[in-house]
Design goal:
By secondary structure, the chain is α+β, with helices and mostly antiparallel strands. The protein has two domains: 101 residues, 2-Layer Sandwich (Glycoprotein, Type 4 Pilin); 73 residues, 2-Layer Sandwich (Dna Ligase, domain 1), CATH 3.30.1490.150. The protein is 31% helix and 24% strand. The protein has a four-stranded antiparallel β-sheet with strand order 2-1-3-8, with helices on one face. Strands 4-7-5-6 form a four-stranded antiparallel β-sheet, covered by helices on one side. Helix 1 runs parallel beside helix 3. The longest helix has 19 residues. The protein is globular and about 50 Å long. The model has no long low-confidence stretch (mean pLDDT 94).
């Protein structure tokens, strides 16, 4: 469960920080550090986030952290820039695209191990639309945010695609025990364009 939920003002602040960082970075302008004066304690405390960019409803970039390593406001700023310019799946966002980009922020809880007995047990323990899932296999790992359940509502397909994202065969989760962690998110976004 999410410890303290963000207020509507805190969400607006984070979206403003992300939008400003996106506009400056895409236009090759320096992005100033987040001004922490006036920010609430929750935004100054370490937090983990994913910033997702969409254009016309299609994914345009998504980068984030699974564990907190910096203040939440800084984390959002950093990942907004990375989603725009460093998501290897997409070319960098161009200045002429910025007005059409919608920013979504997902604030993560700390990932927790999900013990399971066998593949069938894993399928029954997953909570679609609630849990984000991390799969680990040695040095490889991949995650899907809970929002991905909207596109992959069946746990089997969800895990198969997650294995592929990790660079493994889609049935790896059925053939051997993987380390599975789950987390929840508090998701919010700009008004849709």
């Amino acid at each position: 469960m999410m410890p303290d939920c963000l207020s509507s003002d805190e969400k607006k602040n984070l979206l403003r920080i992300a939008r400003q960082a996106l506009m400056l970075a895409v236009n090759n302008q320096p992005v100033p550090p987040v001004d922490v004066k006036g920010l609430t304690l929750l935004l100054r405390e370490n937090g983990a986030s994913f910033v997702t960019l969409t254009e016309g409803g299609d994914l345009r970039g998504c980068v984030g952290a699974l564990e907190p390593s910096m203040p939440l406001a800084d984390d959002v700023q950093y990942h907004a820039i990375a989603a725009a310019l460093q998501d290897y799946r997409f070319p960098p966002v161009r200045p002429d695209e910025v007005a059409r980009i919608v920013i979504e922020i997902s604030r993560l809880t700390l990932p927790q191990p999900l013990p399971y007995q066998d593949p069938q047990d894993l399928l029954t323990k997953l909570r679609p639309h609630i849990d984000g899932v991390i799969l680990k296999d040695g040095f490889r790992r991949a995650t899907f945010l809970p929002q991905v359940w909207e596109k992959l509502p069946q746990p089997r397909a969800f895990l198969a695609h997650l294995c592929q994202k990790m660079g493994a065969p889609s049935d790896l989760w059925e053939r051997r025990e993987l380390q599975v962690l789950i987390y929840q998110v508090e998701e919010f976004h700009e008004p849709l364009v």
